[in-house]
Amino acid sequence: MLTTAPQPVAAPEPDQLEVRLHSPTPEVVLMRVNGDLDVTTARALAARAGQQLLRAPHLVIDLTDVRFLGIRGLDTLRALHEQATATGTQVHLAAPHHAVRRPLRLSGLDQLLPTDSSAEMILARLATPHWPCSTTLPAR
């Protein structure tokens, strides 16, 4: 039997953002983001994420494939948190690498939004009802 290794996701054009949605359980929407999250793409993320806030009690935004997180992206994440709070939804961030983790830490968003190193860790935590949902990554 011939098997192939998973292919890496191709990066979108610099002014585009790719967003893939998945609902692993009725309680969670997983949003995987690919590209740069900046002034040219933040509006697209806000629109896609805003549409998900009433679908489930938890929205996990996976920033693993985000290469750059600019101030507009940070502002968008903060606004999403405020919208989610108003709708009773909890936004969680998967931020595994320095290009995303550092701006989150410097802006204080890592203290406002539950943040972990992978979407899989967040999903596992959410699947275990007695684990705390809020985690902050250590500074590097």
TrEMBL record:
GO molecular function, one term: anti-sigma factor antagonist activity
SUPFAM superfamilies reported in the protein's UniProt record: SpoIIaa-like
Cross-referenced InterPro entries: STAS_dom, STAS_dom_sf
PROSITE patterns in the record: STAS
Annotated Pfam families: STAS
STAS domain location: 26-113
PANTHER family: ANTI-SIGMA FACTOR ANTAGONIST TM_1081-RELATED, ANTI-SIGMA FACTOR ANTAGONIST TM_1081-RELATED-RELATED
Protein name stated in the entry: Anti-anti-sigma factor
